[in-house]
Amino acid sequence: MLQEICLNAVEQRIAKFVAKTRHDTNRSKGVVDKKVGGQGAEQTDLDGIGAELAYCKITNSYPDFDDSPGTWDALSKKGARIDVKTTRYRGGHLVSRMGSNSDAEIYVLLVGEFPSYRVAGWTTADHLMGTEINLGRGPTHGVPQPELINTGFTSGG
To answer: Which of 67, 72, 119, 146 fits 81 for a cystine, CB–CB 3.0-4.6 Å?
Structure first.
């Protein structure tokens, strides 16, 4: 079974601060919000940074707090650039709307909502960018959960 993690009170405060800062910075730079679910943009940002912190907590790594769009979220122990994705849907897919704009090498999917998450698995950027799915809003890069690698996520493969 893959690891589940809940952020503690201090981690939750950090996540809320970083999520608000990223949200405000991205909107001021004209970055279009690419969220898919029905939740608000602020909640999407909070779920996302919460998942990044949860991944870093599990892997004993340090998050990249850069608020520039298209950057990676963490480094694996082997030095691979990791992009952490999250979904609230238990059976949700790993989806990236960034396409080739991201400099990540590995994508990890966490399932849950702030402040609790479960690592669902990971895949390489090449595999994700070479796979298309349609979730009812047109084709996008995505990998269904059952196709994700669910071992070795702490080392990035």
So the answer is: 72
Separation CA 152–CA 121 (nearest Å): 9
In the chain, where the domains are located: 4-147
pLDDT digits (tens, 9 = 90+) for 33-73: 665 666 677 888 899 999 999 999 999 888 887 767 667 88
pTM: 0.87
Residue 140: enclosing H or E segment and its boundaries?
strand 139-143
- Interval 112-120 mean pLDDT: 96
> Which single residue is written with the structure tokens 């790993």?
94
CA dihedral 94, 108, 85, 17 (to 10 degrees): 170
* Cα distance between residue 79 and residue 152, in whole Å: 14
